[in-house]
Amino acid sequence: LMELRNLMISNGLTPIAAGAFVGEHSFSTTLGAGRPDADDLTMARELGEKAAAKVLSGQIDLPVAVEGEDPIRPYYTPRDRNGTPINILKVKPVTDTSKCVNCGMCARICTMGSIDPKDVTSVTGICIKCCACVKRCPKGAKYYDDEGYLYHQHELEDIYARRGESKIFL
């Protein structure tokens, strides 16, 4: 959120409100499962109402303060059990051909357009690990099998099993 706020300021904008809302993690169905929930949506509504009131009042002279580190710290690098960095940038989903019925859902919902609609077993472009193809496959045919990726996924699930809290900043 700090990075987004700073980017807006550097482009001449004055962010007057911000929200950090919990949602299901792309890698996992257990991290943030069921989020956003009713409490999150109530908080989002509150953010919108208070931001609108702030605009109407004319009290928008300073950018909103948000939590975070400034300067922005380097991006997190996943590591294995021995502390060696894990590179998951080139990891792509695979297809269990015994389950796949070639419906093409994965190709249609791939945010990067990287799954070949003529051959859904072929991921020809960049995969950003959004996991839309895995989560939306009606037959459960898409999955990741990369050892480093799976270690990172399970590590996140173990470390962040607690309920995360959404926050608003005005």
Explain this structure to me?
The protein is mainly alpha-helical. 31% of the residues lie in helices and 6% in strands. The strands form two sheets. The protein has a two-stranded antiparallel sheet with strand order 1-4. It is elongated and about 60 Å long. It starts with a helix and ends with a strand.
Summarize the structure.
The chain is mainly alpha-helical. It has helices at residues 2-10, 38-57, 105-109, 132-136, 147-159, and strands spanning 18-20, 94-95, 142-143, 167-169.
Overall spatial form: elongated
Largest sheet: 2 strands, antiparallel
Please state the average pLDDT score: 95
Give the SSE order as H and E letters: HEHEHHEHE
SS-derived structural category:
mainly alpha
The number of helical elements comes to: 5
Strand order of the largest sheet: 1-4
Number of strands: 4
Helix content: 25-40%
Terminal CA distance reads 13 Å
Runs with pLDDT <50, length 5+?
none
The radius of gyration is: 20 Å
Strand content: 5-15%
